[in-house]
Structure formats: C-alpha cells, structure tokens
Amino acid sequence: MEILWVLMAAVMLGFVLIPFLRRRRGGIEQVPAGHPDAADPEDYGFARQEELDIRMPGPDQDLLDVLDLVQRTQDYKAASQLLAGTEREGELRWQRVQAFAGAASLELQQRPGGVSEAPGGQWLRVWRAEQPKDAGGAAVHAEFLVHQAWRTSTPGTDEFRIIMEEAKVACVEAALLAPGDPVPYIVELSVARGLAYSQAEFEQLWLKILDRAPAHMGAHLAALHYWCEKWHGSRELAYGFAEAAAARAPHGSLLAAMPLFAVFEHLPEVNLVSGFYRSEVVTKAIHGALHAVHSARADDPMLAHVRHLLVFFLVRGERWAEAMSQLIHIDGHVGALPWTLSADPAAEFAIYRALAVAGYEANGGSPATLAQ
C-alpha cells in the first residue's frame, strides 16, 4: 500500500500524475492510463475532473440557477428573493450567503474595473444602495467584506484590520435588520478570528449564536477555527470545544462529527503514514462522523461537508470501501474542506478519488459490488 502514498506525495510536490493502479502479487502497482486493468473512476459514474463544481460542497440547484442569473444579468433581485425565502435559522441560509459573497468577491478579483468597465460584483453594490434595509443583502455584504480581507490582504497588516473593522460594522447593521437571524453573528466569528477578539469577547459573541441556533453546524465549524492552535486557542481547547458540541448533539445532528474537524485542523504539516490515520484518536473521530452521517437527514445541507472530510480520512487510513461509499454521494461537487485549501480543489479531490478507486479494486471491489 505504501506506493499509493508515494504517488500522492509526488503529485502534491508538483508532478502531473494520475495514479492508475491494479492488484499484483498481493500488492498495488502503477498501471498506465488506457491499460485494460487500469482503475478508472469513470467506471463508477464519477464526473471528469474538469466537470467538478468547486463552488459548493453539494447540489443546490436553486442557488446555482440564481447565481447564474445574477452574474449573467448583474441584477441582484433574484438573490434577494432567494434569501428572503430561505429559513433564517437553518444551515442553508448561511451557505447561500457565503456563496453570494464569495461569487461577488471572486468577480471583483477577476474584474477589478477601470475606466471603461465596471468592477466585478457590481450587483452587490447596487443591491446595498437600492435596498439598504434588505437583511439578506446586508448579510451578504458583511460576508463579502470578510472574503475581501482574507483574499486581498495579510492578517496583522493595517489594510487587513481596516477591512475587518468595516466588516464588523456591517455585521452589526445586518444583525439589527434581522434580530432572530444567526447569520450576521456567524459572519462575525471570522471577524473575531481576524481581529483577535479576547476569549471573553468571543464567548459573548458565541452565546448570541447559541441563543438563536444552538445546533448550527456551520456556526460550530466557524467557531472551531478561533479555538485552534494556529489562531487564538490550543489543541486542547479546540478538541474540548468539538467534543462538547458532539456530546450535546441532538439525535440526527451532524455535530457528532465535530471532533473529526478538530483532528483535521491539527494535522501535522506532512504525514503520509497510514498508521497515524488508524490511531485511536483518529479512529474514534471517524466513527463519530460516520454515525453522524448515518443518522442525519438526507437533505441536511451540511451532510456533504462531513462526507468530504470523511473521504480524506478514510483514504488516508486505506479504508477504501468506506471511502467509496461516501464518494458516490458527493461526487460532482468539491467546494468543501479539505479540497478548498488547495490551489486546485478539483485536482486534489481527483487524486483522492483515484486512490480510493484503486484501493477498492485492489481488494476485489468493482462497480458491480459498490452499493448505491
């Protein structure tokens, strides 16, 4: 099995390599593309790499249709209507706010504007100017500013702080327009991380979210970043936060998967040893996430997030069949951790998918034996 990780390490170091593998004398070896024994992800109905959607973790056709319309016409009204009809306390509203803000920020990066053309994301500026009391537009604007801070400046610099302070003000304005909506406060969690809120200040903000949406998975994931060792907490604080969330998770809640996200946030920079991914702490976190996935509603908007991270850990732990059972649910969309940390999320996902297929077939699996 070690050759799988050698191949993956080579890809991550910059080589253009797609691993096609087969079983031979009890081990696994590389097989050229086009060989009749080559493991091919397309045999399982998986999308080609160039067809993978990097915008979202899973399907939301209403959002995709509206995003296409808004970006094509530069008219914000469909986005406003979609958010107005989306439940305030649910996960879907937060994901849609993120999607609209991210789209506007990316547009601006791609088309900064000039003498002869308007800057990208102009529809968001018009939205805020024409509908200043629109709670959805206010939330998207606040999240847009957060995106801009992380995308265009460096934490700790004056430029970064100025944009984050502006985002903080925008969060307050958005919260005033929608008192029961947790989203403005969830946006502020990123502001709190960027501006280094004290732990007491952060706890006050967190209580406002718990009052409005105590089981909100997206909020918990955003808060986890603050408690991580690389930001304003420690490994122990992050694990404690995640385990407490899992312990109080109601039946069917994906909060039981929080420890797996805490483990991911504290992985060593380089660790290709499969034994680490079979350790007690990782195995326990994987089992918690698998239980959460099996008990969650099929339409839970956060389900895809957990499945994507499970693929990462299951492949690293060489649990091929279990990885494949997650892939059949999420293939086609890669806008989630861990892939979004890569400069090319689709390529990163494709590597793990190819490894899962290869490992699955090396142990006797085939498209015919994969349960749908």
Quick take:
Helix content is 58%, strand content 2%.
Key features of this structure:
372 residues; mainly alpha; two-stranded antiparallel ribbon; 2 strands; 58% helix; globular
Characterize the structure shown.
- With 372 residues, the protein is mainly α.
- Helix content is 58%, strand content 2%.
- The protein is built from 16 helices and two strands.
- It has helices spanning 2-12, 61-73, 77-84, 91-110, 122-130, 135-152, 158-177, 183-194, 199-212, 217-227, 235-247, 258-265, 280-295, 303-316, 320-330, 345-362, and strands at 21-24, 27-30.
- The chain has a two-stranded antiparallel ribbon with strand order 1-2.
- A hairpin with a 2-residue loop joins strand 1 and strand 2.
- Helix 6 (135-152) runs antiparallel to helix 7 (158-177).
- The longest helix is centred in the N-terminal third of the chain and has 20 residues, at 91-110.
- It starts with a helix and ends in a 10-residue tail after the last helix.
The string of secondary-structure elements, in order, is HEEHHHHHHHHHHHHHHH
What can be said about the biggest beta sheet? 2 strands, antiparallel
Helix content range: 55-70%
Percentage of residues in DSSP E strands: under 5%
- Strand arrangement, major sheet: 1-2
Helix vs. strand class: mainly alpha
What's the helix and strand layout?
Layout: H1 2-12, E1 21-24, E2 27-30, H2 61-73, H3 77-84, H4 91-110, H5 122-130, H6 135-152, H7 158-177, H8 183-194, H9 199-212, H10 217-227, H11 235-247, H12 258-265, H13 280-295, H14 303-316, H15 320-330, H16 345-362
Antiparallel strand pairs: 1-2
